[in-house]
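Batch 3, record 17
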Amino acid sequence: MNIAHDETTPWGPARSVRGGRIVFKELLRGEEKTPTNFSLVLADTDVNFKSPRHRHNFDQIRVTLDGSTNFGPRHNIEVGDVAYFPEGTPYGPQNQELVGKGSLAMVIQFGGASGSGYMSQRQLFDGQEQLRAFGDFEGGVFRRKAAAPDGRMNQDAYEAIWEYQNHRPVEYPKPRVTEPVHFRAAGLPWVDVHGQRGVQWKELGSFTERNIRVACLRLDAGAQYSPEPRPQEQIIFISEGAGHFGSGEGWSKHTAIHLDVNEAPAMTSAAPTEALILFLPRF
Amino acid sequence: MDFVSFEAAPLHTRGTNHRQGSFRYKDLGQGTPGQRDNFYLRIVWTEGDFFSPRHMHNFDQVRVQLAGRFSFDKDGTMHSGGIGYFPEGTAYGPQTSAEDTIQLAMQIGGPSRSGYISEDERQAAAEALSKRGRFEGGKFLANDDKTGAGQDGFEAVWEYANGRRIKYPTKRLEKPLLVNPEAFEWLDVAGTPGVRAKRLWDFGTNALSCSLYQLRAGSSLALAGPLTAFVLAGAGGVAELRFGKYDALHLAPGESARIAAREESELLVMPHPILPQISARTAAAPELQHS
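Prediction for the assembled complex:
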């Protein structure tokens, strides 16, 4: 089990890989160069944040913690929503000005079902710094001082960094779905977990041949939850509450936990707790 | 077990139509009217004149685009081979087609337990309503409606058949889910030689989920109800019956069947929602095991 807390993790420097100011606090990261590598960040986005329409070669989950997060015309992730951006599926353009204010979001980026993996935040920002010798980043686009071997002058900023770090052209998986999957999760019913008093589950959905799965867990104060071991890595994000695991490690608001395959620690809540659970793809 | 032969099923033309445009169909099976998990499976042929206004359902729906193309305006387009999930409470459309299309449509009571009215109930209500007004452009315009705004055609039919105002469930998804199965990878199903699967989605045991299975000639697959299986391609046998392209099989809770492929075959398998119990489908349709 790997655990990190909001209050003891510092914010990073302001970044602008795409366009506009955004600040990250990386709570958890996986293992570089593995298909389930991931990064869980809190993202403090300014109202001036913009990003062109684009797609990823990895998967992404976003939850708004404060404010509202724009991800395209007429598409805002409100508090209580969960949005899943599968690899290969284009979205955007993002324009936070359409909301009229900034937002605080929890974002998990992780290797998707294709096995393309995920370039870590360290690789991303190191690559960006190194690429500045060859051009400028402007509005989410990398503008080269001299043409690339294929003649290109301008390229999506993330794509340019990925290719620089991986020494090969990026390949996007075919989109499995035409649009990001936007759950209006707050209004969906909770279901009692059989045999576990004060424990409730909200299944949002699972996708792809690799069973990428998203669910929510709710514990009453004083509840004890004994989860079953699962054949997939899990990421738990505590949106509210307090308590401790069987190992004695505590959780509080915005604690993030990574569980390895078949790791299933008991949970005892001291205060009413709600959490998002992401099951990483099963390879 | 209810096996429905596509070839033997009669071709109907919808009489009083609560949508707009020509609409021919073959029934491929239904559940029990009045039950929460009542369902209706059919193949529909439409022409370039189809139009349906933006609307939502109080039931779950899966569509498979077998030929042609359907546009759902800003909610996307279904191309041949595409599969879509239109969950209860999620608005979509307007829907149009500018060409001839063939679609498989599965409709079933969803998580809100609102149930699903049968085609007979729908047809009877539409005919009764047509004496009080007219269906035009997918809407019902009552003779005594002084506003001229009309009401969604299905909504009017549902309210007449049920004798109460329709109540739409809380939406789970902001948009329908339109899936391109070609982009998924076939994975071997553990313990079932010659069978591979593509797991498309699963929104939990109280909603309609969807997977594809590919059976090599000579292989077989055991299925346990409640579910509906639709033959996208191939031929083989189930019990004493022979199956072919576009045939359908429905298994009730507790029923099981073994599908044996004589030729390479592809099946769409839709485990039904379990209503109201949540945990029962774990036994009925276990998670795919990868070898």
